[in-house]
Specification:
mainly alpha
């Protein structure tokens, strides 16, 4: 390969415009309104449940609480305590702190 060809390739590479890196937006910023309305733990619970394609009733039966309590936790009307978060973590096989 001649030096001339090598120079051309280098010059050509510098002429190619590169796209600026797109900033990713943190998920908490995207879902800010939902977090304020439902709570972060409630959104995580709902998302985990929907990802596994199970109903509130199925989850409630599996961990031994009422479906009404699951609904209240998802809607931010009932806090998710540490003991309950541990049950959710065990059920979904994730770190329980995700639901706190």
């Amino acid at each position: 390969m001649s030096g001339h060809t090598k120079t051309r390739r280098t010059r050509r590479a510098t002429l190619i415009k590169r796209k600026p890196k797109e900033r990713s937006i943190p998920w908490r910023e995207v879902f800010k309104e939902e977090i304020e309305k439902y709570s972060e733990g409630g959104l995580m619970l709902r998302g985990s449940r929907q990802k596994e394609e199970i109903t509130q009733k199925d989850l409630a039966d599996a961990i031994g609480v009422s479906q009404h309590h699951i609904s209240e936790m998802e809607n931010g009307k009932r806090p998710i305590g540490k003991a309950m978060a541990k049950k959710f973590g065990e059920f979904f096989k994730v770190d329980y702190r995700r639901f706190l």
